[in-house]
Amino acid sequence: MKRTASLILLLAMLMLTGCAAQEMPETTAAPTAAQAVKRSQVGFYFDTVVTVTLYDGEEGLMDEIMAACDRYEKLLSKTVEGSDVDRINKAGGESVTVDAETWEILRRAKEINQMTDGAFAVTIAPLSAMWDFTGGTQRMPTEEQRLSALPLVDDSAIILGEGNTVTLPKGAQIDLGGIAKGYIADKVAELVQGRASGAVLSLGGNVYVLGHKPDGTVFNVGIQDPHGPSPIASVSVTDISVVTSGIYERQFEKDGVTYHHILDPKTGLPSQSDLASATIVAKSSMDADALATALIVLGRENALQLMQEQGIEGVLITRDRQVFMHQTNETFQLNMLVDIPVQ
Ligand code: ADP
Ligand code: MG
């Protein structure tokens, strides 16, 4: 009996130390209750930090999740040679047969492009490629380069054919940076469903929360203060995705002007709207991802109108730090951490 117990303990410790990032197991308060084992692992995919925390996760689940991230990176990253996106971008006007999942993401991307009056556009690629918001080179297009690339930004020109074919006009390219992480979060959440008592999946600004904490309470997801490093608010949620896009995420300063990574497809320049961040709470992290990006481009007034029309739930923060909330189904509770009224 004693030997079995110490064997289990040893196994648990091995499991913990086998991870890239470990934390001590958290146990439930009542000593008689089953002990909840918390495991976290950090990975780097899609140019972003991926953190997965599982409570009572099934054996092997963490490895399955990381393997899924790896597979999706090879499918959807524009910088991985031979990925679906890479092949589409190099097709030069020819049709390309892609994975059914890539096709499905593009189908939904086109719908969201229409829904947002073009504010979300995966064909932003020729323009986003002219900017470097992360590499430190401060590359940006000249006005001539920018204006000559603008006609290529048109998601309605993406032809999705039978048998998972994709055809773009010659010169056009796609960038799934504003939607792929959401799709992957959805797929990872599907993997975890029913195989852990609680889970927090975080892929950059995309968070998916499942189940509950060991003490039975729901998880809180922070919303960053656009003006500072700490959270301005948090949302309490379960079994849902919380996605934040912010103009403070990836940016550089040149000659006193700050340039950030959310581009207005109509101009090819960083969005000039009054919004600094948009947080969407939704079952579909893919939709939330694309919509959060789009709402920033649309600006407060149009964003709130679209949220009302489409039943999109979330929180908008303006550049001057006003907070607006739209909620229809009470899927989240907003907890303000600073003294700002919610409008
Ligand atoms: P993050 O990647 O920081 O989570 P977003 O989800 O807001 O941020 O996506 C921004 C990324 O999407 C950019 O890095 C770029 O690759 C792409 N992108 C930028 N502007 C747009 C846009 N208007 N529509 C679609 N994708 C965009
Ligand atoms: Mg997005």
Descriptive account of the structure:
- The protein has 343 residues and is α+β, with helices and mostly antiparallel strands.
- It has a domain at 82-178: T-fold, CATH 1.10.3980.
- It has helices at residues 2-17, 61-76, 84-89, 100-115, 125-128, 143-149, 180-192, 285-298, 300-310; strands at 38-45, 48-55, 95-97, 159-161, 165-167, 198-203, 206-211, 219-224, 231-237, 240-246, 251-254, 257-260, 275-282, 313-318, 323-326, 333-336.
- Strands 1-2-6-7-10-13-14-15 form an 8-stranded antiparallel beta sheet, covered by helices on one side. Strands 3-5-4 form a 3-stranded antiparallel beta sheet. Strands 8-9-16 form a 3-stranded antiparallel beta sheet, with no helix packed on it.
- Strand 11 (251-254) and strand 12 form a beta hairpin.
- Helix 2 packs antiparallel against helix 7, helix 4 packs parallel to helix 8 and helix 7 runs antiparallel to helix 8.
- The chain is globular, with a radius of gyration of 21 Å.
- The model is unreliable at 1-33 (pLDDT under 50).
- Residues 178, 245, 289-290, 292-293 line the site of magnesium ion.
The largest β sheet comes out as: 8 strands, antiparallel
Going by CATH, what is the homologous superfamily of the domain at 82-178? Answer: ApbE-like superfamily
Number of strands: 16
Chain-averaged pLDDT: 89
